[in-house]
Request: fold
Amino acid sequence: MTEKQYAKLVAETNPRSPIVKDALNAFWIGGAICVLGQVFQNLYGYWGLDDKTASLCASLTLICLSALLTGLSLYDDIARYAGAGTLVPITGFANSITAPAVEFKTEGYILGVGGKMFTIAGPVIVYGLAASAVYGLIYWLWNLI
Reply:
């Protein structure tokens, strides 16, 4: 079987993806996560926190909820339905850190949880820290001039 014949066979046998349905699910679930974050921010503001602190508390609440739902294996069910809608930056990042930690819990807390927790998110954290150090150095040098 040639490569072209194989590609044709794969194209014929694979089911068509419901792109419109998937996009709508991602849109409304991602939007619901954002609305939930705004509800938390407004609630914390109503309780007397200033805007900056209310935003921080709302972000922390979304992170904790995402980690909790990942630990309870519910975040994966939501992601299966919503697809990319669950990749809203703060909840998706919390899930990407929590999921490997939960998966490798049986290997122990040091080598399992501690070692695998940053498998996916580690490069992002390292790049962010390195970029912030470079930008900080440039900013410091710029202010010396």
